Inverse folding.
């Protein structure tokens, strides 16, 4: 990759700074492990649900516990969706804020392309779904199911097929997923809040405000912060807004950069980096895999049952949205950005690389399953689960074919990106002609 972006043009699949590449590499390693656990949880759930002991799986999902007085007597599956996924969205909030405050998204020129691409990857799948499922009574509620990208699942696929994927492609996929998470959060908050209770929602601002003040002053004592976070989550849950939104708000409250005023004589990293380091393994290694295990178990009824499910326009709409809508939306939006802004495409890469990433973004899994439950109700979304699973697997297989066809080019780029002749710990390609490239 020898054609760095012009400072006057948006960057399109162009290598970033060494600091950002190193950070993204660390994030992807953790998410890849989480993705493998996610897949394991999903496979175990599907096998169990389709075994002679499938009833015991459903019994486990519906085990209820929690204080009734606080409206928290929930099933195990609901605790996973509302509670454990709040950890996932807390980490997503940290990542979002970090990207926009200190990451590459703070530069509007670099941020424009992945943001527009992510929006295209939301709008087109939703439109395709509505076009296919419009005839089904109540089917429109599921319009957002095929709009999400599951970064953990996608990275698990990349770990198998894309070990040599260039840093620019990895960064673009992660940035796309980060923006996708933000859109999903907004969609859940605005469109899947059925009954809003204002008093608990306003009450949630009190523990959230105290939490914010403490983290802004670099307080990291769990015995102070955890009760405040739990109170915020419980009050948001009681308000009718999906409780995972509380995780995002708490993540947004954590400072990314320590100011001189609150952090001592020098500015530096805020608590966001510390919390991300602590909570990402819990999110990737526990929260998401457990949610996958408790949500992915769907009785398929053999080949005949699967064929029958795809006669449902809702199922077809979800699958087409993920497999066809996602790549069309992302590719079209990206091409338009390149066309009208003259964004630079690195000379070592081609549009087929963008196509591979766009197809890979059709892996919808975690958030798609969550939105399916919110749209149709837990227990009424069995066909939706089958659509999400089949659509995600199809997208993974198609992306594998496309990206593996470019493996030779990726190996060549990877060799260039790892050369460090002066042995200073920073690959030479991040320094030649770009003094700022080693920052971070």
């Amino acid at each position: 990759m020898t054609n760095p972006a012009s400072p006057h043009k948006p960057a399109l699949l162009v290598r970033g700074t060494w600091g950002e590449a190193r950070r993204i590499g660390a994030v992807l390693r953790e998410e890849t492990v989480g993705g493998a656990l996610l897949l394991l949880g999903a496979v175990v759930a599907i096998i169990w649900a389709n075994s002679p002991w499938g009833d015991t799986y459903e019994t486990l999902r519906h085990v209820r516990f929690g204080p009734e007085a606080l409206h928290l007597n929930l099933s195990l599956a609901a605790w996973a969706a509302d509670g454990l996924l709040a950890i996932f969205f807390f980490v997503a909030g940290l990542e979002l804020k970090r990207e926009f405050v200190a990451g590459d998204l703070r530069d509007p020129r670099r941020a424009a392309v992945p943001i527009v691409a992510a929006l295209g990857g939301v709008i087109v799948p939703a439109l395709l779904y509505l076009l296919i499922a419009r005839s089904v009574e109540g089917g429109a509620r599921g319009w957002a199911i095929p709009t999400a990208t599951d970064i953990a699942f996608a990275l698990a696929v990349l770990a198998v097929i894309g070990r040599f994927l260039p840093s620019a492609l990895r960064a673009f996929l992660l940035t796309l997923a980060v923006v996708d998470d933000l859109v999903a959060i907004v969609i859940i908050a605005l469109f899947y809040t059925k009954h809003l209770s204002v008093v608990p929602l306003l009450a949630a601002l009190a523990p959230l405000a105290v939490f914010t003040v403490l983290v802004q002053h670099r307080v990291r004592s769990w015995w102070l912060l955890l009760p405040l976070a739990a109170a915020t989550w419980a009050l948001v849950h009681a308000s009718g807004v999906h409780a995972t939104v509380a995780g995002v708000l708490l993540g947004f409250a954590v400072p990314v950069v320590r100011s001189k005023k609150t952090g001592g004589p020098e500015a530096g990293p805020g608590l966001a980096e510390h919390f991300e380091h602590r909570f990402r393994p819990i999110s990737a290694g526990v929260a998401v895999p457990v949610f996958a295990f408790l949500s992915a178990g769907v009785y398929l009824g053999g080949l005949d049952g699967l064929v029958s499910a795809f006669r449902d326009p809702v199922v077809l709409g979800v699958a087409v949205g993920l497999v066809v809508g996602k790549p069309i939306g992302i590719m079209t939006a990206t091409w338009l950005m390149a066309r009208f802004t003259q964004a630079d495409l690195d000379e070592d890469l081609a549009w087929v690389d963008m196509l591979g990433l766009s197809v890979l973004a059709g892996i919808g899994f975690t958030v798609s399953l969550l939105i399916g439950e919110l749209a149709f109700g837990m227990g009424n979304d069995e066909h939706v689960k089958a659509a999400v699973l089949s659509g995600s697997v199809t997208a993974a297989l198609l992306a594998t074919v496309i990206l593996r066809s470019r493996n030779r080019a990726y190996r060549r780029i990877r060799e260039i990106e790892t050369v460090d002749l002066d042995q200073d710990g920073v690959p030479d390609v991040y320094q030649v002609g770009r003094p700022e490239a080693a920052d971070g």
Observations:
- Confidence is low (pLDDT under 50) at residues 2-7, 434-440.
- Strands lie at 11-12, 64-65, 74-75, 257-258, 268-269, 344-345.
